[in-house]
Amino acid sequence: MSIDDNSPKKDSLLLHSCQSSFSDKTRSLNEGKIKLLLICGIIFLFVGLTSLSVAIWLITSSECAIEESHDKRQIQQLSLTPSNSSTNQSVNQSEWEHDRKYDIDFERLRNSATVKNVVQSSTRFKRSYALIADLAIDGKKVFNLKTSQEPSCSQTDFETNPFFIIDLGHKRVISSIYLIFPFDYPLRTQCNFKVQVGIDKLEETILCREHLGIPIKPNLLIDCQRPIYGRYLRIELLDIGIERSLSICEVAVLKT
Length: 256
What we know:
By secondary structure, the protein is of the alpha+beta class. The protein folds into 2 domains: 1-62; 68-253, Sandwich (Jelly Rolls). It is built from 4 helices and 10 strands; from the N terminus they run ααααββββββββββ.
């Protein structure tokens, strides 16, 4: 057989090899594109879910978010406001109106457990007064933070997760607490908080109750999910992305 007779076969084999090679490269290229599209799809899905989660968090937080600088300016302005008798008269009238409107249960406040000590995460000052933690257990029937001439409510500085702790002195059954926030301070500032009970140490706590959202009124009766045997009670504002100030006018651990 001559060399010319084998030429068509060689050409056919060469053409087949080229076509196979081209098909393999095309297949590899298509597989690479598919993998790239899958990776891009996964990335876009992850980014989308993350953005959705952030959006939901922002919407939830915005419902009880506060204008921190505005509140601070208000406090500073009130701190510089001189006292006078007409202001006292209007404040007293306002306090009586609040008592009728919110139906303060003074019997619950009287029928409360003895408190040995209280402490808060920090202390804010109003004029020359320190808004110390003890003001939340002084038993006064004054529940205004900004318009009272003398301090009647405790208040922390603006910070993350401000808290208030009650030491009962010994362990007892804790099932309910009565909590009164300031009447003249935006309730949105006290949204999203939790109440915990410490057994023997503050570091070892059990959740009594979480309150999510803005309180519908300043005086709240909070029932624990179940009675807890403990010594300490901790009230803490949850983190919503901004610094806040915790203010309590009166708090009582109710006897069972």
